[in-house]
């Protein structure tokens, strides 16, 4: 019986993160013994790929930028091909503490998709104004859909169990906001169990998220549109053969 | 209607049809993309050769000014062609994205194999 971490692939989508990706990879290996790490270089123009390779990660380089959704699809396909049961997505800017991965993977014992949530008690991450309202609207609707309480639906810190990996390797959305909002809708409607686990977030190494009210309003609009389109699409049936590799 | 405008209408329709058919012949245009242009060219040719057909069909659908029927049908055809192009673009983008994903995975796999081969060859070099 191998430990769950040995069957877990940590995927780091990275776009021009040469400054932080090396440290994140080293931290993943230090804090999570036995885990494998795949950096998906999403068409970076800097040294992201070579920095990640030197840090000891496997690196898949996309020929051009596909967005987080496209990068994660590569991660899910790699996981299927190499027999990993679980995939954990971690941001390569150092915002997510790799120590939190263990808690997410543990929660996969009972759920198919585990969200690392920023507002669920731990950490000191706060957002104000229209951006906050957008998150409240999204979390209310998506919580009802997922039949569980979700407070941070746009979190990029999430773990997928075997059933979610099988579903996402074929159907992970690649559009803008699709990787966060639509993927939750797809998972919920395919009958996956979704759960949220509180995680601490670190402030980003450089820059603060934009608090411009117009940008926040545009974000709210696009997010709601993404949600409406996701709900309009036909649900995807989950494949019954869920045996994943050795 | 003067003889000159009659000739202009017929020639314009014939040129349109000629260009589409020639492009089809040279395989620069696939059938499913040419269908709308063939329909538009044929309609234009019919109305060019028999102008009363336009007045008759406008009367049939209750359009008072026959020219407005021409504009309506033209816009409708252009609209359908645009939608078809948007849909084709979406399909092509999806295919390109999947190819990019596959390319990234193949490259990674090749690097891994090359690394293993170097590893195997290194000790046997003595």
Write up this protein:
The complex is a heterodimer of chains A (246) and B (126). Chain A has helices at 21-31, 48-54, 67-81, 100-107, 130-146, 162-171, 178-189, 213-232; strands at 8-14, 36-41, 58-61, 86-89, 113-117, 158-160, 194-198. Chain A has 246 residues and is an alpha/beta fold. Chain A has one domain: Spore Coat Polysaccharide Biosynthesis Protein SpsA, Chain A. Chain A has a seven-stranded mixed sheet with strand order 3-2-1-4-6-5-7, sandwiched between helices. Chain B is an all-alpha fold. In chain B, α1 (3-25) runs antiparallel to α2 (31-49), α2 (31-49) packs antiparallel against α4 (66-121) and α3 packs across α4. Chain B starts with a helix and ends in a 5-residue tail after the last helix. The A-B interface holds A 40, 58-64, 66, 70, 73-74, 77-78, 81, 174 and B 97, 100-101, 103-105, 107-108, 112.
CATH superfamily (homologous) name of chain A: Spore Coat Polysaccharide Biosynthesis Protein SpsA, Chain A
Largest sheet of chain A: 7 strands, mixed
Sequence stretches where pLDDT stays below 50 over 5 or more residues of chain A: none
β-strand number of chain B:
0
Q: How many structural domains of chain A?
A: 1
- Which protein chains make the most extensive interface, counting residues with beta carbons within 8 Å of the other chain's beta carbons? A-B, 16 and 9 residues
Cα-atom radius of gyration of chain B: 28 Å
- Give the helices and strands of chain A as they follow along the chain: EHEHEHEHEHEHHEH
How many helical elements of chain B?
Answer: 4
CATH architecture of chain A: Alpha-Beta Complex
Class by helix and strand content of chain B? mainly alpha
Quote the average pLDDT of chain A. Answer: 84
Approximate helicity band of chain A: 40-55%
